TrEMBL record, chain A:
Key component of the proton channel; it plays a direct role in the translocation of protons across the membrane. Keywords: ATP synthesis, Cell membrane, CF(0), Hydrogen ion transport, Ion transport, Membrane, Transmembrane, Transmembrane helix, Transport. The keyword Membrane applies. It is found in: Cell membrane; Membrane. It holds the Pfam family ATP-synt_A. The gene is atpB. Its main location: membrane. This is ATP synthase subunit a. The lineage of its organism: Bacteria, Pseudomonadati, Pseudomonadota, Gammaproteobacteria, Nevskiales.
UniProtKB/TrEMBL annotation, chain B:
F-type ATPases have 2 components, F(1) - the catalytic core - and F(0) - the membrane proton channel. F(1) has five subunits: alpha(3), beta(3), gamma(1), delta(1), epsilon(1). F(0) has three main subunits: a(1), b(2) and c(10-14). The alpha and beta chains form an alternating ring which encloses part of the gamma chain. F(1) is attached to F(0) by a central stalk formed by the gamma and epsilon chains, while a peripheral stalk is formed by the delta and b chains. GO terms for cellular component: endomembrane system; plasma membrane; proton-transporting ATP synthase complex. Belongs to the ATPase B chain family. This is ATP synthase subunit b. It is found in: Cell membrane; Endomembrane system. The chain crosses the membrane at residues 6-27. Keywords: ATP synthesis, Cell membrane, CF(0), Hydrogen ion transport, Ion transport, Membrane, Transmembrane, Transmembrane helix, Transport. HAMAP family: ATP_synth_b_bprime (MF_01398). It comes from Hydrocarboniphaga daqingensis. The gene is atpF. InterPro entries: ATP_synth_B-like_membr_sf, ATP_synth_b/b'su_bac/chlpt, ATP_synth_F0_bsu_bac, ATP_synthase_B_chain. Pfam families: ATP-synt_B (PF00430). It is a single-pass membrane protein. F(1)F(0) ATP synthase produces ATP from ADP in the presence of a proton or sodium gradient. F-type ATPases consist of two structural domains, F(1) containing the extramembraneous catalytic core and F(0) containing the membrane proton channel, linked together by a central stalk and a peripheral stalk. During catalysis, ATP synthesis in the catalytic domain of F(1) is coupled via a rotary mechanism of the central stalk subunits to proton translocation. Component of the F(0) channel, it forms part of the peripheral stalk, linking F(1) to F(0). The b'-subunit is a diverged and duplicated form of b found in plants and photosynthetic bacteria. One of its GO terms (molecular function) is proton-transporting ATPase activity, rotational mechanism.
């Protein structure tokens, strides 16, 4: 909710400021640390690992408990997705896909928290620490921060090369990069097209997730600007729609990762 | 809106640590449990199938035994019936023979009695004849002297 001394524009801007350590205000910053993103992403990752580790320790081949059922259903779902898309050793790529799916899902779920809940608490804490609460910036949705989504997509980008070299060898990769898809005579066109294609992958992967969640967060912020009696219907509608987006974007990120690594690993 | 390179690098490191943890400590135990359960379920299903097959076999065997027992019972019943009939026939035959024998015996007795009575009567007739003749002749006929005549008379009666 916008407080009395804030204009709507200030309210929105305030909500889109990261909690940073040092750093500049450049669009691509070489010095700023997004402490909020790093904090929430790590905490959510630890939540994921803790729950799944507990299930793994307790895992029996007998009658599974509720937690084990839940974890097993997710693992089987991910394993089947990997099986369908990737025909090679799954020892690394399946846990990778699981981590991406659950982690991104948890990131996205942060968007379902009330937009003002954590910022309000943080303003209190920040004020209590002797700072000006008006400058208490915090953003709770890691996937609405390009730093987080690009971290994932660049990791996948690196893995694309790793899997290319593993599947085809350096020579095979170079050959495909230079001669595919138009043949050796059209080498410059091939290089151009492949470069664009390779660069488009991490960009689209990161920006798709970021765009969806950033837009979702922004809509929630705008709904929060409405008078309280007008918030219920649009807030509920957007929330229900967003539950779909949250799951879908996590699934898309995982599936595209599998597809890219499969394309990298296999010969064409 | 800002993309921060240090955050990206830090996040990537965290991500790889998470993936490695998942790969080492999360994925293998759960997939192992899943695989083991799959094997156990397969074994259980196979055992159930074997049980069903042996049940079928046992029920077939018991059916067969029941059928055999029924046939045997039928045979025993038939033999008993036959024996009973035979015994009745035999008893009937014995009874008939016995009856015939009794009748025959009775007939013989009757015949003998009749003969005896006839003999008696003849003797009495002879005596009466002799008495009559003696009365007629007014003289005593010597019974012993005329015995042969009397005998002859008696025989004619």
């Amino acid at each position: 909710m916008a407080s009395a001394e804030q204009t709507p524009a200030e309210y929105v801007t305030h909500h889109l400021q990261h909690l940073t350590y040092a750093g500049d205000k450049q669009f691509i910053s070489l010095t700023a640390w997004h402490l909020d993103t790093l904090f929430f992403a790590t905490i959510l990752g630890l939540v994921f690992l803790t729950i799944f580790r507990i299930a793994a320790v307790k895992a029996t081949s007998g009658v599974p408990g509720k937690l084990q059922n839940f974890v097993e259903s997710i693992i089987e779902f991910v394993d089947n997705s990997v099986k369908d898309g990737f025909h090679g050793p799954r020892g690394f790529i399946a846990p990778l896909a699981l981590t991406i799916f659950v982690w991104v899902f948890l990131w996205n779920c942060m968007d379902l928290l009330p937009v003002d809940l954590v910022p309000m608490i943080w303003a209190q804490v920040y004020g209590a620490m002797g700072h000006d609460p008006h400058h208490a910036y915090i953003r709770v949705v890691p996937s609405a921060d390009m730093s987080a989504t690009f971290a994932l997509s660049l990791s996948v980008f690196i893995l694309i090369f790793v899997y290319s070299f593993k599947g085809k060898g350096a020579g095979g990769f170079a050959k495909e990069f230079l001669t595919h898809p138009f043949g050796a005579k059209m080498l410059p066109a091939n290089v151009l097209l492949n470069t664009v294609e390779y660069l488009a992958r991490p960009l689209s992967l990161a920006l798709r997730l970021f765009g969806n969640l950033y837009a979702g967060e922004l809509i929630f912020i705008l709904i929060a600007l409405l008078p309280w009696w007008a918030q219920v219907i649009p807030g509920m509608g957007w929330m229900i729609f967003h539950i779909l987006v949250v799951t879908l974007q996590a699934f898309i990120f995982m599936t595209l990762t599998i597809v890219y690594l499969s394309m990298a690993y296999e010969h064409h | 809106m800002q993309a921060s390179i240090p955050s990206i690098v830090g996040q990537m490191i965290v991500f790889f640590i998470f993936v490695l943890f998942t790969m080492k400590y999360v994925w293998p135990p759960i997939t192992k449990a899943l695989e083991e359960r799959r094997v156990r379920i397969a074994e259980g299903l196979a055992a159930a199938e074997r049980g069903a097959a042996s049940l079928k076999e046992a029920s077939a065997k018991s059916d067969e035994a029941l059928k055999a027992a029924r046939v045997q019972a039928q045979e025993i019943l038939a033999a008993a019936n036959k024996q009973a009939t035979q015994m009745i026939e035999q008893a009937k035959a014995t009874a008939t023979a016995e009856g015939e024998k009794i009748v025959e015996h009775a007939n013989g007795e009757v015949a003998r009695q009749v003969a005896h009575a006839k003999e008696e009567l003849r003797k009495q007739v002879a005596d009466l004849a002799v008495l009559g003749a003696a009365r007629i002749l007014k003289r005593e006929v010597n019974a012993s002297a005329h015995a042969d005549i009397l005998q002859d008379l008696a025989g004619r009666i």
